[in-house]
Amino acid sequence: EVLDERPLASFSPQALTALAGGFAHTRTAYLPLLEAISEELTARLCDRMSAGRAAAPSAKVGDTAAEGAHRRGEARAWAVTRIDGCFEEEAGMAALDAMDRSCKFNSQTLAMSCWAFARAGWAAPRFFDAVASEASAKPQLFSMHGLSMLAWSFATARHVAPALFDAIAREACQRSMRQADAQALVSLTWAFCTAQHAAPKLLSAIADNTVADSRLHAFSDRTISGLAWAFASAGHVEEALFDAIAATIQQRLDVICELQTLSMTAWAFSVLDVPAGPAALGARRFSRRCAVLASAAPPAEEALVQLHQYNLWCVERGVAEAVLPADLAARCRHAMATQQPEPSLMQQQVSDALRSHGCELVYETTSLSGYPIDMLVRWRGAEVVVEVDGPSHFRAHSHKRTSTAELKRRQLRSLGLQRLVSVPYWEWQQLDRKKGGERLRARRKYIAEKLEGCT
């Protein structure tokens, strides 16, 4: 109805944002309308930026209503002097209207628009590019909630904008974290971790503020587990924060009613291998509470996998009283063992290179720990685990493994699989530059050197 009977040009930016937000809230992604809204907002934002470059007075992101009205009045007067008989009156007024509409953006509108498109699952790349350009230059005009919303939106939409994330991190670090509520802090942390954008100073500032002001008591159970998950995913250790999280979880343990809250927290402590070990979370009390919640409602597979990794951590640390009850432990191990992805082309190429050496090869098997492993081979009388590490095993724009990949390697080795060979994707890709038989010989030599180095 909107597209057919009323042109989007007649809507203000705030109205367009509210319209997109309504569809996002209801999770009804009507793509033609979202596309039209994103194109309309992009055009206006670009007009506003162009007008600014032409030195025209205009409303600025962050203007109050009075300041905006004053600037729009100046802009109208400026445009009238430019008409000066060079345009027909109708064309001149159309230009004024376009300028007036483009001047109504503010920081809240920009952040809410990004949130609406990200939540609805609409990529809107041109709009996100324009917002990134505008917000990177003026992050100070956004509230802490606005900065958090921007970061969450870009991370959710998987829109790469390193300059924007750098600007958000710098600006947030310069402010008092007390300006942000619990959800804003967690969303900000989650966004940087999900976007895999390193910001150690920002994470330390969030941790320091959370601990110093004793804010955890006001955080919900989900918020606390989300904070622990985000820090662990980033591989960022803050002992004081995790001590506070552990104490809070122990205080609330008997009233926490969602298994995922406990599984995410347990996974985070396992990843970082916190010095206090499983005892920090309550050891036997924690395991028993997990068993109660797992029997109360069918748990998600992800929660079971996280609890299995926690259980392995208890074994690693030799804390027998913290191990999960046998029936729950078996369910968790089964969930882990059945997480076997489809073999990739690179895995097939590596297995071909192994077979060319006459290796005894067990493909896509499960270790005694329950972890799926890519290949188990026998080389010179010894069993060797071969893991084919594709891009998803590493942090963005680096050769550093993700927390999940690092945890797997650590636990495999600590539980007896000392001979472990990794084949990183970038090393394998270098071999592909060779041609024909030379490439096959290079792969064969590469694999032999890896196996010899391990045994």
How is the topology of this model organized?
Blueprint: H1 2-5, H2 13-25, H3 31-53, H4 65-83, H5 89-102, H6 107-120, H7 125-137, H8 144-156, H9 162-174, H10 182-194, H11 200-212, H12 221-233, H13 239-252, H14 259-272, H15 284-296, H16 301-317, H17 326-337, H18 345-355, E1 360-366, E2 372-379, E3 382-389, H19 403-414, E4 420-424, H20 425-431, H21 436-454
Helix pairs in contact: 2-3, 2-6, 3-5, 3-7, 4-5, 6-8, 7-9, 8-9, 8-10, 10-12, 12-13, 12-14, 14-16, 16-17
Percent of residues in helical segments?
55-70%
- What's the helix count? 21
User: How would you state the average pLDDT, rounded?
Assistant: 84
Question: What form results from the Cα inertia axes?
Answer: globular
User: Which consecutive residue ranges, at least 5 long each, have pLDDT under 50?
Assistant: 54-103
Spatial order of the strands forming the largest sheet: 1-2-3-4
Helix-and-strand structural type: alpha+beta
Cα distance spanning the termini: 70 Å
Biggest sheet details: 4 strands, mixed
Let me know the number of strands.
4
Compressed to H and E, one letter per element, the order equals HHHHHHHHHHHHHHHHHHEEEHEHH
The amount of beta strand, in percent, is 5-15%
Radius of gyration: 27 Å
